[in-house]
Specification:
The chain is mostly helical. It has three domains: 118 residues, Serine Threonine Protein Phosphatase 5, Tetratricopeptide repeat; 53 residues; 55 residues. It is 74% helix and 0% strand. Helix 6 runs antiparallel to helix 7. The N terminus and C terminus are likely disordered.
Length: 259
């Protein structure tokens, strides 16, 4: 079967496959005929994802990206998959890839919305909420050391939540410990790769430390996630001005081994 014939087959089958899981076997025939076709690998991954066969979906999406690393759409799909399997660091790497290579914001929004739906569904313990509330009270009184302790305990109680990590990072800045702040802000980004706030906090810290090109890249990603985030734009503009222009190179390696 030629590539054109395989494309014609996949195009003809796509509407049916979105409604009937049993038609997945037909995609198997297309895959057997043309295993090196990006489009086929992507669609078999989609069918597997919608059927909740996440292991198979991951394998085909990664194969598709091996054939065409410039696909932001497949990277966004992988991000959604990793969110469902609670592999949030991998989800963040994939959404970063999608943001850097994808020009169609509708594709990015699909991935971000899918991530947000999964992450919003995560339960959060009352103990963590109580510790965050106590930490905020301590911070308002100026006792940032005590506040940090509350936030750390809240993050330990709910390792995948965002608010305790962000607050711990801010407390570390008040305690003049930027290295620990960076670690907490990065954890917040890993826990919520769809959110701009954690990336803006990281960009501000990098700007203060003089790592201008990385600050610009972080802020760029934040503005793609939320184009209305004025703080993200302000941090990016400040970093670009101090850097004398946009970064000379993208620091995210598109050819690096995928997670």
């Amino acid at each position: 079967m030629t590539i054109l014939a395989t494309l014609a087959l996949t195009a003809a089958l796509w509407p049916q496959l979105m409604h009937r899981r049993s038609d997945a076997a037909l995609w198997g025939h297309a895959l057997s005929a043309e295993p090196d076709l990006f489009h086929t690998q992507d669609k078999v991954g989609c069918v597997s994802l919608f059927s909740h066969d996440l292991e198979t979906a991951e394998r085909h999406f990664k194969t598709a990206l091996g054939l065409f690393r410039g696909s932001g759409l497949v990277a966004a799909r992988l991000a959604a998959l990793y969110a469902e399997t609670t592999e949030f660091q991998r989800a963040r790497r994939c959404i970063d890839q999608a943001i850097l290579v994808q020009t169609d914001d509708r594709v990015l929004q699909w991935g971000i919305d899918r991530l947000q739906a999964v992450l919003d569904a995560r339960p959060r313990s009352q103990a963590s909420r109580d510790m965050v509330r106590e930490g905020l009270a301590a911070a308002r009184s100026g006792d940032f050391r005590s506040a940090l302790g509350h936030f750390v305990r809240a993050a330990d109680a709910d390792p995948a939540t965002v608010e305790p990590c962000t607050n711990a990072g801010l407390a570390c800045l008040e305690l003049r410990d930027p290295r620990s702040a960076r670690r907490w802000f990065q954890r917040a980004v890993d826990n919520a790769p769809f959110a701009a706030d954690g990336r803006v906090n990281l960009a501000k810290l990098l700007l203060a430390e003089g790592d201008l090109e990385t600050a610009i890249m972080r802020a760029d990603i934040a503005t793609r996630i939320d184009p209305d985030d004025g703080e993200a734009w302000a941090v990016r503009d400040a970093a670009v001005k101090r850097n004398g222009g946009p970064p000379r190179s993208v620091t995210f390696d598109l050819d690096a081994e995928w997670p």
